[in-house]
Write a structure and sequence with these properties.
This protein has about 230 residues and is mainly alpha-helical. About 45% of the residues lie in helices and about 5% in strands. The chain folds into two domains: about 120 residues, Orthogonal Bundle (Fumarate Reductase Iron-sulfur Protein, Chain B, domain 2), CATH 1.10.1060; about 70 residues, NAD(P)-binding Rossmann-like Domain (Rossmann fold), CATH 3.40.50.720. The chain has a three-stranded parallel β-sheet. The structure holds iron/sulfur cluster.
Protein backbone atom coordinates (compact mmCIF):
# COMPACT_ATOMS: atom_id res chain seq x y z
CA UNK A 1 0.00 0.00 0.00
CA UNK A 2 1.25 3.48 -0.82
CA UNK A 3 1.33 5.85 2.12
CA UNK A 4 0.87 9.45 1.02
CA UNK A 5 2.01 12.39 3.12
CA UNK A 6 -0.04 15.45 2.44
CA UNK A 7 2.32 18.17 3.51
CA UNK A 8 5.96 19.06 3.52
CA UNK A 9 6.52 18.67 7.25
CA UNK A 10 4.96 15.23 7.35
CA UNK A 11 7.20 14.29 4.45
CA UNK A 12 10.34 15.47 6.25
CA UNK A 13 9.37 13.68 9.48
CA UNK A 14 8.50 10.39 7.79
CA UNK A 15 11.65 10.16 5.60
CA UNK A 16 10.77 7.81 2.79
CA UNK A 17 13.83 6.02 1.37
CA UNK A 18 14.51 6.57 -2.34
CA UNK A 19 12.52 4.10 -4.43
CA UNK A 20 14.79 1.79 -6.40
CA UNK A 21 13.76 1.20 -10.00
CA UNK A 22 13.38 -2.53 -10.77
CA UNK A 23 15.87 -3.97 -13.27
CA UNK A 24 16.16 -7.10 -15.35
CA UNK A 25 17.77 -9.92 -13.42
CA UNK A 26 21.46 -10.24 -14.45
CA UNK A 27 20.90 -13.86 -15.52
CA UNK A 28 18.14 -12.75 -17.87
CA UNK A 29 19.71 -9.57 -19.12
CA UNK A 30 22.95 -11.19 -20.19
CA UNK A 31 20.91 -13.10 -22.78
CA UNK A 32 19.20 -10.13 -24.40
CA UNK A 33 19.78 -6.54 -25.60
CA UNK A 34 16.66 -5.09 -24.02
CA UNK A 35 16.56 -2.14 -21.66
CA UNK A 36 18.00 -3.01 -18.24
CA UNK A 37 15.94 -0.72 -15.92
CA UNK A 38 12.24 -1.57 -16.11
CA UNK A 39 10.66 1.71 -14.98
CA UNK A 40 8.57 2.63 -11.94
CA UNK A 41 5.01 1.43 -11.35
CA UNK A 42 2.41 4.15 -10.59
CA UNK A 43 2.55 3.20 -6.88
CA UNK A 44 6.35 3.49 -6.84
CA UNK A 45 6.22 6.82 -8.69
CA UNK A 46 3.72 8.31 -6.22
CA UNK A 47 5.83 7.11 -3.31
CA UNK A 48 9.00 8.61 -4.79
CA UNK A 49 7.15 11.86 -5.59
CA UNK A 50 6.19 12.06 -1.91
CA UNK A 51 9.88 12.63 -1.11
CA UNK A 52 9.94 16.02 -2.90
CA UNK A 53 9.73 18.92 -0.44
CA UNK A 54 8.20 21.28 -3.03
CA UNK A 55 10.90 23.88 -2.36
CA UNK A 56 9.92 27.54 -2.85
CA UNK A 57 13.28 28.18 -4.54
CA UNK A 58 13.91 24.80 -6.18
CA UNK A 59 17.64 24.28 -6.70
CA UNK A 60 16.85 21.29 -8.95
CA UNK A 61 15.38 23.64 -11.57
CA UNK A 62 18.57 25.72 -11.54
CA UNK A 63 20.45 22.51 -12.32
CA UNK A 64 18.19 21.67 -15.28
CA UNK A 65 19.54 22.98 -18.63
CA UNK A 66 15.98 23.59 -19.91
CA UNK A 67 14.48 24.77 -16.60
CA UNK A 68 11.73 22.15 -16.34
CA UNK A 69 9.22 22.94 -13.56
CA UNK A 70 10.45 19.96 -11.55
CA UNK A 71 8.44 20.45 -8.34
CA UNK A 72 5.40 21.14 -10.53
CA UNK A 73 5.51 17.89 -12.48
CA UNK A 74 6.47 15.88 -9.38
CA UNK A 75 3.52 17.30 -7.48
CA UNK A 76 1.20 16.23 -10.31
CA UNK A 77 2.55 12.67 -10.04
CA UNK A 78 2.09 12.83 -6.26
CA UNK A 79 -1.53 13.88 -6.85
CA UNK A 80 -2.09 10.94 -9.24
CA UNK A 81 -2.46 13.40 -12.15
CA UNK A 82 -0.12 11.71 -14.61
CA UNK A 83 -1.55 13.55 -17.64
CA UNK A 84 -0.87 16.85 -15.85
CA UNK A 85 2.69 15.73 -15.13
CA UNK A 86 3.50 15.09 -18.80
CA UNK A 87 1.91 18.39 -19.82
CA UNK A 88 4.14 20.24 -17.34
CA UNK A 89 7.21 18.43 -18.68
CA UNK A 90 6.28 19.21 -22.31
CA UNK A 91 6.16 22.95 -21.54
CA UNK A 92 9.96 22.95 -21.42
CA UNK A 93 11.13 19.64 -22.84
CA UNK A 94 10.06 17.89 -26.04
CA UNK A 95 12.01 14.72 -25.19
CA UNK A 96 11.09 13.67 -21.62
CA UNK A 97 11.29 9.89 -22.25
CA UNK A 98 14.82 10.36 -23.62
CA UNK A 99 15.97 12.82 -20.95
CA UNK A 100 14.51 10.69 -18.16
CA UNK A 101 16.79 7.89 -19.36
CA UNK A 102 20.04 9.45 -20.54
CA UNK A 103 20.44 12.93 -18.96
CA UNK A 104 23.25 12.98 -16.36
CA UNK A 105 20.80 13.81 -13.55
CA UNK A 106 23.39 13.17 -10.84
CA UNK A 107 25.35 16.16 -12.16
CA UNK A 108 22.31 18.31 -12.98
CA UNK A 109 18.88 18.39 -11.29
CA UNK A 110 19.43 15.56 -8.79
CA UNK A 111 22.91 16.87 -7.98
CA UNK A 112 21.25 20.09 -6.75
CA UNK A 113 18.23 18.53 -4.98
CA UNK A 114 18.01 19.71 -1.36
CA UNK A 115 16.97 16.25 -0.15
CA UNK A 116 20.35 15.03 -1.39
CA UNK A 117 22.16 17.03 1.30
CA UNK A 118 21.28 14.45 3.96
CA UNK A 119 19.74 11.56 2.03
CA UNK A 120 19.55 10.21 -1.53
CA UNK A 121 18.13 12.96 -3.78
CA UNK A 122 14.65 12.72 -5.25
CA UNK A 123 14.81 10.41 -8.31
CA UNK A 124 13.83 13.20 -10.73
CA UNK A 125 15.02 11.31 -13.82
CA UNK A 126 13.06 8.17 -12.94
CA UNK A 127 9.94 10.26 -12.34
CA UNK A 128 10.36 12.08 -15.66
CA UNK A 129 10.75 8.72 -17.39
CA UNK A 130 7.67 7.40 -15.58
CA UNK A 131 5.47 10.33 -16.69
CA UNK A 132 6.60 9.99 -20.32
CA UNK A 133 6.26 6.19 -20.40
CA UNK A 134 2.86 6.29 -18.73
CA UNK A 135 1.60 8.75 -21.36
CA UNK A 136 3.05 6.61 -24.17
CA UNK A 137 1.53 3.34 -22.92
CA UNK A 138 -1.67 4.31 -21.16
CA UNK A 139 -2.07 8.02 -21.61
CA UNK A 140 -4.82 10.12 -23.04
CA UNK A 141 -3.14 10.47 -26.44
CA UNK A 142 -2.92 14.21 -25.90
CA UNK A 143 -0.17 16.30 -27.43
CA UNK A 144 1.73 19.34 -26.14
CA UNK A 145 -0.22 22.58 -26.43
CA UNK A 146 1.20 24.73 -29.26
CA UNK A 147 0.78 28.43 -30.03
CA UNK A 148 -1.28 29.46 -33.04
CA UNK A 149 0.47 29.49 -36.42
CA UNK A 150 2.95 32.29 -37.04
CA UNK A 151 3.44 31.52 -40.74
CA UNK A 152 7.21 31.46 -40.25
CA UNK A 153 9.26 28.51 -41.57
CA UNK A 154 12.50 27.29 -40.04
CA UNK A 155 14.98 24.72 -41.38
CA UNK A 156 16.75 22.62 -38.73
CA UNK A 157 19.94 20.87 -39.82
CA UNK A 158 20.42 17.51 -38.10
CA UNK A 159 17.93 15.50 -36.07
CA UNK A 160 20.09 14.64 -33.06
CA UNK A 161 19.10 15.70 -29.54
CA UNK A 162 19.77 19.40 -30.23
CA UNK A 163 17.90 19.38 -33.55
CA UNK A 164 14.87 17.64 -32.07
CA UNK A 165 14.89 19.93 -29.03
CA UNK A 166 14.98 23.10 -31.10
CA UNK A 167 12.30 21.67 -33.43
CA UNK A 168 10.09 21.08 -30.38
CA UNK A 169 10.64 24.62 -29.09
CA UNK A 170 9.86 26.13 -32.52
CA UNK A 171 6.68 24.06 -32.88
CA UNK A 172 5.55 25.18 -29.42
CA UNK A 173 5.91 28.77 -30.58
CA UNK A 174 3.76 28.09 -33.67
CA UNK A 175 6.45 28.00 -36.38
CA UNK A 176 6.68 25.51 -39.24
CA UNK A 177 9.75 23.25 -39.10
CA UNK A 178 11.62 21.11 -41.65
CA UNK A 179 14.37 18.91 -40.27
CA UNK A 180 17.11 17.88 -42.72
CA UNK A 181 19.04 14.79 -41.74
CA UNK A 182 21.93 12.98 -43.46
CA UNK A 183 20.77 9.54 -42.33
CA UNK A 184 17.48 7.87 -43.04
CA UNK A 185 16.10 7.83 -39.50
CA UNK A 186 15.72 10.78 -37.13
CA UNK A 187 17.57 10.77 -33.82
CA UNK A 188 21.27 11.17 -34.66
CA UNK A 189 23.40 10.04 -31.73
CA UNK A 190 20.25 8.95 -29.87
CA UNK A 191 19.72 6.24 -32.50
CA UNK A 192 23.20 5.59 -33.88
CA UNK A 193 25.34 6.21 -30.79
CA UNK A 194 23.44 4.89 -27.75
CA UNK A 195 22.87 1.12 -27.47
CA UNK A 196 19.39 -0.37 -27.32
CA UNK A 197 19.70 -1.54 -23.69
CA UNK A 198 20.38 2.05 -22.64
CA UNK A 199 17.91 3.88 -24.91
CA UNK A 200 15.53 1.77 -27.02
CA UNK A 201 15.02 3.00 -30.61
CA UNK A 202 11.27 2.71 -30.02
CA UNK A 203 11.50 5.48 -27.40
CA UNK A 204 13.25 7.87 -29.80
CA UNK A 205 10.74 7.05 -32.56
CA UNK A 206 7.88 7.75 -30.16
CA UNK A 207 9.31 11.17 -29.19
CA UNK A 208 9.66 12.06 -32.89
CA UNK A 209 6.07 10.91 -33.50
CA UNK A 210 4.91 13.27 -30.74
CA UNK A 211 6.77 16.14 -32.43
CA UNK A 212 5.07 15.26 -35.71
CA UNK A 213 1.66 15.30 -34.00
CA UNK A 214 2.51 18.62 -32.38
CA UNK A 215 3.39 19.99 -35.81
CA UNK A 216 -0.07 19.17 -37.23
CA UNK A 217 1.40 19.09 -40.75
CA UNK A 218 3.82 21.85 -39.85
CA UNK A 219 6.74 19.53 -39.24
CA UNK A 220 8.54 17.60 -41.97
CA UNK A 221 11.44 15.22 -41.69
CA UNK A 222 13.74 14.90 -44.70
CA UNK A 223 16.18 12.06 -44.20
CA UNK A 224 18.90 10.50 -46.34
CA UNK A 225 20.37 13.83 -47.47
CA UNK A 226 24.03 12.82 -47.21
CA UNK A 227 24.96 13.31 -50.89
CA UNK A 228 24.20 15.88 -53.52
CA UNK A 229 22.58 14.42 -56.64
S1 LIG B 1 15.24 20.48 -4.87
FE1 LIG B 1 14.54 18.33 -4.55
S2 LIG B 1 13.05 18.54 -2.90
FE2 LIG B 1 13.31 20.59 -3.71
S3 LIG B 1 11.72 20.84 -5.30
FE3 LIG B 1 13.56 20.05 -6.33
S4 LIG B 1 13.27 17.81 -6.36
FE4 LIG B 1 11.86 18.63 -4.81
Amino acid sequence: MVVIWRNKWQRIKKKVPRVKMPEQDPDVRRRNFEEVPLGLTPEMAIKEASRCLQCKKPACVEGCPVSVDIPGFINKIFSNDFAGAISTLWERNALPAVCGRVCPQEAQCEGRCIVGKKDAPVAIGSLERFAADYERKKGSGKIPAVASKTGKKVAVIGSGPSGLTVAGDLLLKGHEVTIFEAFHKPGGVLVYGIPEFRLPKEIVASEVATLEKMGQNRMQFRGGRLRHH
